[in-house]
Amino acid sequence: MSVTTGVRPRREGRRVAIATMVGTTIEWYDFFIYANTAALVFAQLFFEPLGAQAALLLSFATVGISFLFRPLGAIVAGHLGDRVGRRAMLVATLVMMGAATTLIGLLPTYEQAGILAPILLVLLRVLQGFSAGGEWGGAALMAVEHAPDGKRGLYGSAPQLGVPIGMLLASGVLAITTAAFGVDGFLEIGWRIPFLIGVVLLVVGFIIRRSVEESPVFLELRENKARAKMPLLELLRKHWWLVLLAALTFAGNNAAGYMSTGGYVLSYATNVHEMDRTAVLWCVTAASAVWAVTTLFGGWLSDRWKSRRNVYLVGYGLQILWAFPLFLLVDTQIVAMVLISLCAWMLSTGLTYGPQAAYFAEIFPSHLRYSGVSLSYALGAILGGAFAPTIATWLQQSTGWIGSVSIYLAVMAAISIVALLIIKDRWGRPLIEREEPEPAAKAEAVSAR
């Protein structure tokens, strides 16, 4: 008997949504712990001989380097996800990310091991990037392909929620750690604690992800022998333009996320304005909570409006409008203003993130979907957030004007708007394509009646 999306019980859909959210939360806790720690202490711990400014640039560059390996993770996980299944990739990527994070917490510093220390740091960051490149596609598809009709945006926002919640946990743990250890204590030993906590989260996530059932869409593809033999080659041969456009729809959001909660605002507020680290981290934590709420709202709204694109357009419009107030409020050096600035910014980020899983799933054919969504997400991350903190730091240092960073963010949002307007909004399309029979077959079917 064929397994179809229409007969899946809603209880299983909710369970899968929760499982993808928990697993993605753990993955992105690991990822954001690195980004924020890079903003705070990695320049001193691993790159200090280069001088303060160059060390900070290189510290942010290690955040970006991992993005270059996301496409490789997307290619490998996409191929296996389209051939072997979604669930197996979810477990494998989670284990890789957790192992890399734990090992970073055990690394020697430059003072202890010399040049070996930054080399090991970069290698582990590469492993994190490889894992992240393959993780999101599997989580997104598991949630969307288990979703009831008319609720793909809402269910698809579950793995999206893992990103802001992971950021909330990461910034919260860092805020508590910096407060408990103080500046010197955090630099000496405290920075390791958030990384080592990752091993506990890894065990929890592994158990939860192992418990979910395989995607019903993949099960039907396997039963009907409709899986692609070489998903990546077919994807690039037939849909390369769609992959590029989909990546660009994500680039503006990713730049916004990594600029604000991904380290740059934290670095700008603490290094340029010398604001209290713990206070700014709590602002980032609160903004992450707003991001989570608006992400869920964005997914729900895309179902309500029966349009993913329109929700995106509202979000990117708000991003363009808020790009300048974002830093003007931070420049006041008042904690309450920083809080307002970041929370308002997260409204636009959530609206352009909540619909993404459903949007990506609906624009790619089922037998190439894992490869398509994973590669688009990875390329969008490179074009958007990979080097956003590095670019912003360079712009601010070279121009002496923080407004140049605001222009950069507005331009990224505008690029995403153009890509969205080119791609057809495929809200509600069937997740498994039913090929029309040939004319002769149609005639035969009619005569048989």
UniProtKB/TrEMBL annotation:
PROSITE patterns: MFS (PS50850). The chain crosses the membrane at residues 28-47, 53-76, 88-107, 161-183, 189-208, 239-259, 279-299, 311-328, 334-354, 375-395, 401-423. Gene3D superfamilies: MFS general substrate transporter like domains (1.20.1250.20). It is found in: Cell membrane. InterPro entries: MFS, MFS_dom, MFS_trans_sf. It holds the Pfam family MFS_1. It is a multi-pass membrane protein. Keywords: Cell membrane, Membrane, Transmembrane, Transmembrane helix, Transport. Residues 16-428 form the Major facilitator superfamily (MFS) profile domain. This is MFS transporter. It comes from Leucobacter chromiireducens subsp. solipictus. The lineage of its organism: Bacteria, Bacillati, Actinomycetota, Actinomycetes, Micrococcales.
